[in-house]
Every structure is written in C-alpha cells, then in structure tokens.
Amino acid sequence: MKRSPPPVTASTVNWARSQPPLLRFLHTCYANFLAEAGGAVADYIPELGKADPAHFGISLATLDGHVYEVGDTRVPFTIQSMSKPFVFALALDTLGAERVESVIGVEPSGDPFNSIRLNADNHPFNAMVNAGAIACSGLLHAGKGDGAFDYIRHALGRFAGRELDVDEAVYASESATGDRNRAIGYLLRTNSVITENVPAVLDVYFRQCAILVTARDTAVMAATLANRGINPLTGEQVVTPYAIARTLSVMTSSGMYDYAGEWIYRVGIPAKSGVGGGILAALPARLGLGSYSPKLDKHGNSVRGIKVCEALSAHYDLHMLNRSDDARHSIIADYNIGKNPSRRVRRPQEQEILAKHFQEVRVIELVGTLSLSNVDYVSRRLAGSPRPEFVIFDLRRVTATTRAGARLVAEAFQELAELGVTVILSGIKRTSREWTTISEWTNRLGNIRDFYLLDTAIEWAEDQIVYRYGGSIDFLETTELSEQPLLAGLSEAEIADLAALCTVNTYQPNEKIITAGSEATSLFFLRSGVVHVTLPDGIRLATLTAGMAFGEMALLEPTRSADVVADMSATTYEVTIQDFERFREQHPRAGERIMRNLAQILAERLIVANAKVDLLTSG
C-alpha cells in the first residue's frame, strides 16, 4: 500500500522559512538603522561623493565559513583605509617585524587619520593612520619594486577569498586631489622613512585604497583576521599568526583613529573603518563583521556601521575583555583502563595482569581549546592522583591549540618524561594544524606516542602493561576448541563431537571473513591470528585473538550486523548453524551450557558499554 506524504501544516511552512537567531538579529539591526539620516558622504575625494547614501549592507562571517548577509552586501565600494591592517600584516610577513617596526610605531596618535605629524622619533605613530600606511606601501615598494601594487592586491584578494579589482575612477580622483598625502609622503622622505621615489610609493597607496570590495568581502577579510590568518572560506593561511596578533593589537588601539578609545571602551572589538563607508570588525576566535553605509560621522566612520557594531557587541556581550571560559570544562572524561578497557578481547592471563595493574594507564579526554589555563588545570588534575606508567590524552574534541597552551603542554610532557611516564596522544592527525602547533614544542621529546583512534591507543598501552608484568601476547599461537570461553564447561567428548563438525579455514591479512548484512550461516572459533569486528561505518567494535569466538550472534539473529576482517594471517574453526543445531539436539546439556556462556559474554559486554556511557555523562 502506497503511503501518502505527511500533510503540509503551518508549522511545516514556518520551519522551512525560519532563520538562525543571529541572522534575525542582523535583520533587526538593518531595519532599526535604515532610517538613520545622520552623517554625510565623503566628498574631499570627488568620486567618493557620488556614492548612494541609501546603500546599507551588513555581513557577518563565522570561523567555520558561514556568511550571513542582509541588505546591500554585494554593492562594491572602495576599501580606502580598511586596507591598512592587511597591508601592515603583509609587510610584517614579507619584510620581517624588525624592518617594519624600525620605521613605524605602534602608539595611538590621538589625531585625525590624515594628520601631517610624526612621533618624537620622526616616524609614523602607527600603521592605521595615513602616514603609517604610506610608510608600509613604501616598504613594500622597496622590496617588490613595480610589482608592489599587484602583490598587495593579490594578498587582499586572498584575505577576501576572491580576486579584487580597482575602481580606476576613484583612483584617478584620489590621485588628483591627494596633495595632503603627498605632503605626508615627502615628510616621510625627509626623515628617511621612505627611501624610494615618493610619487611611485603614493601611486601604490592610492591604488591600494581604490581596491573594490563589498560588505561580504570585508566580513570574510575580518574573519580571516579573527581566525589567526586562515581564510575560513578557502582554508588558506594568508599571513602568519604573529602578523595577525600584532595587526589586531594596533587595530585595537588605533583602528578607529581619534575615536579609538571610545570604541574599544564601548564596543571592545578590534576594528577598522574607511571613508568609502565601510567598517570591518574582527573578534578573535569568534567572527568577522563587515558593513557598508557611505554616510560618515565627524571622525570619518560610517554612522550606520558604528551603530551595527555597537548593537552586536551590546546584545551578545562580545567585548573582547569580557571572557568567562572555565578551565574545569576542558576535561570531558578522566579514567583508567579498569573502568574503560580497549575493545580487544583478552585471554585470561592478560586479563589477570590488567586487572592487577589497571591504574597504570590513565586516560584523559579533552574538549575545547588547549589554552594556557586549560593545560595548567589538566596538569594539576593529573598530578593529583598516583603516578601512572602511561597517560593517554585524547584530543578528538579539541578544536584549537594556542601557542601558549602548546608550550605548556611540552613542558608538562617533559616533566612526565623525567618521571618515567609515557605520553600517548590520540584523536589527532599528523597533518592537522593542532599537531603542527603541538609538535613545534614536543618533537624533541622521546616519550610521546600517537595513535589516531583512542581504542588503538588504549590497546597499545594495555599490551605494554602485559609485557612489563610478565605476560606475553603471541599472535601466532594456535589454540584448541577446549580453550574457547563460549565452550567452557563442555566435556572432552562433547568438544570432540563438535570438532568433528568443524572445518579449518585460513584467511590472509585484510581478507573479509564476515560481511555485514549477509545471512548468518556459520559460527567461528579463532584458532590463530587476529581479527577485528567493525560496523559498516568503520567503527571498531572489538579486536579478537586466538581462543575467541565470533559470529556467535548467528545463534540469535539471522543477519550479520558487522564486518569481521583478518588483521593478519588467521585460521578458524567454522561450524555451520545447521550442524550446530544438530549438535545441540544430540547434546542438550552442552547446548544449554553454550547459551548460558553466550548470555554471560553479552552481559559482560553490556557492563563495559554502560561504563563507557557513565564516563561521558558523569559530570
């Protein structure tokens, strides 16, 4: 019978039309500030005066690459002074901090952006005012010659995630009316800040300010600053974290010119404005905001753009100095292998050793950011318990690692090495950014192992405990049916009758023995080697060694629920379910005993599974 589709209700329609709360808030800002009539369009550069004062766009980019847009977010306008932080970061990376900092200061000036004044060393106060920005362009011109502008334009495009063009009309207008900037240029030349041809340097600067962007572009560019130099859309590391940190510092103190103090006090987000009507704001590790509205206040900042930033910061309490991260939330689980062993099914001798020495393997599962405070808390938590021989740090839920956190991690690992403790990392790939950050400080330490899967890490640590305390793990050992836990309690005669029904099969490494979804027709007893049991999605359920049974759920279910694959050369005893049922009819006592054993095995698995759940849900 064909089922009819569910009825379309008002709730269904509303759900389809619903918007994320942040997008709704941006729409509210747009509606509230659209009627704002204050300010005036910049006209000291004649071409800028042609901008439509009605244009208003708001865009917000998250660090996972999602971009919200409201209003005129695709209307192009010239970047103007918003180019300054990006060119400053580019200069730091291209020429080195020492070279840049030798001629450009980092102190706020307290003056308008186009002030013709230098500091006590006859250098620009900072790179956010025109004098500092022209000096930056001069440094890049000295290093790149005639290719300086294309180098800058390409770099700004990498910040935006697309190629950017130039508004030639604005460039011509700016160049024709740029005498104040020429005065600044020659003042810098007189004081040896610029050593190149001043008109050529100013041409780079005028063109740089005439690059076309949109509100969406500036949001992505701001998010790249907030994301330690990594473009959240393209994934490219555009500039180094060092350059980003220094750039954000200067933006914080000087990005909004003589309004900077008021801005950081009330809004608390590093930002940069441009007389073209744009404002970008970069909240580190959170988001990037870009807005466009050409009417400016007396400081040269977009009136509507200021209001958007103030509203966003106030509504969501985003002031960068108002953080409430709690290091105690960085540990999601802390246990030893007595509470949560690996999925390896161990033989009695191994079980006995691990039961006696379970406290020698400590597992700490981490979440969030490996920051200085979080790593410090983890190290104190670890030191508060008896010293283990192995510590596994599972990082699969770690979203970021700060350099301070990575350095403290290395110092903690160094101390563990001196105490004879082996560190094992899991849940982190060697190709990841977090591995690069951590390994910068830890690659000289010899006490660190890494496995991507936590269960593999626990299994390896268990093996070391077995070896250290007199046990052995012989994967080539051959076992008999009498050693099988599923057949415990059967007499020699019953074992012999069952053996007569079995066939011995050999499997090569990585050969699939059982396929999920296939008909369950046989029961297997592992005679030698190792196999692993996995779900179709790749999650490993168990690792089995000689002396263990698998496929035993065929006694209860007609279809296979998991794959079984040989890890290495393996041999099995295989008995068909049909033959096994005949055996149970001939030996009812043995059949009852086997089902009791199966119930016991399943109960033990359930206990282990419940323990894992408890570890993750016990506050």
TrEMBL record:
One of its GO terms (molecular function) is glutaminase activity. Residues 351-461 form the STAS domain. GO terms for biological process: glutamate biosynthetic process; L-glutamine catabolic process. Transmembrane segments: none annotated. It is an enzyme of class 3 (hydrolase). Residues 486-601 form the Cyclic nucleotide-binding domain. It comes from the Bacteria. Its EC number is 3.5.1.2. InterPro entries: Beta-lactam/transpept-like, cNMP-bd_dom, cNMP-bd_dom_sf, Glutaminase, RmlC-like_jellyroll, STAS_dom, STAS_dom_sf. Pfam families: cNMP_binding, Glutaminase, STAS. Substrate binds at S81, N130, E174, N181, Y205, Y257, V275. It catalyses: L-glutamine + H2O = L-glutamate + NH4(+). PROSITE patterns: CNMP_BINDING_3, STAS. Keywords: Acetylation, Hydrolase. Homotetramer. Belongs to the glutaminase family. This is Glutaminase. It comes from Bradyrhizobium macuxiense. The lineage of its organism: Bacteria, Pseudomonadati, Pseudomonadota, Alphaproteobacteria, Hyphomicrobiales.
